[in-house]
Each structure stands twice: as structure tokens, then as C-alpha cells.
Amino acid sequence: LEDQFAKSQKMQAIGNLAGGIAHDFNNVLTIITASVDFLLLNHRAGDPSFQDLLLIKQSANRAASLVRQLLAYSRRQTMRPKMLNLTDVIADMHLLLKRISGDLVKLERHHARDLWPVMADIGQFEQVITNLVQNARDAMPEGGTITISTRNVPEAEIKRLGYVEMTEGDFALVEVADTGGGMPDKVAERIFEPFFTTKEIGKGTGLGLSMVYGIVKQSGGFIFVDSVVGKGTSFRIFLPRHFPSEAALAKVEAGPAVLSA
Ligand code: ADP
Model-level pTM? Predict the structure, then answer.
């Protein structure tokens, strides 16, 4: 228990540091991008400096994307939470996820139809799933199976599972499991830290899972990883069940309007 406490304090300290840097860096980037845009207006494609300016602009865009991931980790990103059914969101992502997994990987889905709703930002949740599927694919260069499942986990079961960080309430669970190479404990302990990667330079930034962690935490949820070397890895995301207000429910009964709480 003490271990977990120390770990979450460490994660928070890294988050504060990363968030502070990202925030200031973002201001600098805004100036670079605006200045380059201005210069590009005064240059034509054939001009000698045009290619250099484009390169600056592309690099600034890439830096901005890294900064966004860091801001998500440190929970300084603005969220627009809506009431979501995660089964539906994942079903809608099926084609995209198939494309990410590639031809060698089989993508399976097991979904609870009556999954409890949660409050989350749909764009951010899609980023979470996309990241987990990308990592799963990377862990299976020779192919394998990715299984995405959802189900309701009532409070009584949470207690039985014994996740010490979670104490009360009902949760909707999303699990992304792969049959890849897995990871040793030494790696698993550090995967949520920003910039921690075991991938080659240029292949991984080490920001994917830290962003996932930040988004899940900001949504009031929990994430756990189980991994066995040579067998595979499974990520479990628990998001708190949302109880819609009567007004929101009345709106659903009245017609097919999209629910937002
Ligand atoms: P990146 O993918 O850029 O390395 P992440 O934060 O997404 O950054 O992941 C950090 C590290 O966690 C990876 O480099 C890898 O070592 C490990 N990892 C993540 N997902 C898996 C997985 N499904 N199977 C095995 N290792 C994984």
C-alpha cells in the first residue's frame, strides 16, 4: 500500500514538472508558429528560404503535438465530458482500430450491451483506445490477437478484486489485451512515466501511456496493467458509473436526441 502511495506521489510530482514545462513551452511555440506563418505569407514556393520555413513550421507542429500529450498527462488539458456509452464509442472506432492493428493482428471485441454510462471526453477516450491498440500491435510484430472488452463492475466486485486504490462505487470497465511479448516488472512499473520508452529512437516518444494515464485520472478513473513476459499484456481501465439526472433521461425518452449531461 505504501509503495502505491509513494508511486502516485512520484507520478504527481513528474506531472507537475512536465505540466509546468509544457505550459511555458506552449507559449513559446505559439510565437514561433505565428511568426513562421507570417514569414510564409511573404515567401513564394520557389524562394530560397521557403523550404526552411516550411521545415520550421512542421517541426513546431510536431513539438506542439508532444506538448499536447504532456498537458494531457499533467491533467492541464481542457475536457468536455459528456455522458458516453463506451461500448458504442469503441464500436464506432472499429475500422480505425483495424487499420491500426494491421493485417497480421486479429481484432476481437466482447461487449456488454447494457454498459453503464460514464462521463468522459469522447475525443480523449478515443486517444486512449488508439494508444493502447498501437502499443499492443507494436508488442506483436509477428501477429497475434488484440481483444477489447467492456463490462459492468459493481462495487461488490471491486472490493473482491482488491484494487487498493479503488474503494467505492460502480465502474464501467474497458480492457485491451494482447498476446504479445509482455514486459518484465521493471518495465511495467515505469510505463506511465512521461518519456519512458523501450522502443528505438524515432519509433517511440514514451508519451502515449502517460497521456492515457492523465486522461483516465482526469476522468475520475483508474488504470491497471497486467503483463506476463512471453504471454501478453492487458490494460484495464475503470471509469466511474454515471447516474444521469431525470431531466437527461426524459430527453432520451422524448426522442433520439444525443444525450449530454
Ligand atoms: P511508446 O509507445 O512511445 O514507447 P508508451 O508510453 O505508449 O510510449 O509506452 C511505454 C512503454 O511501455 C513502451 O515503450 C513499451 O516498452 C511498454 N508497453 C506499452 N504497451 C505495451 C504492450 N501492450 N506490451 C508490451 N509492452 C508495452
Answer: 0.81
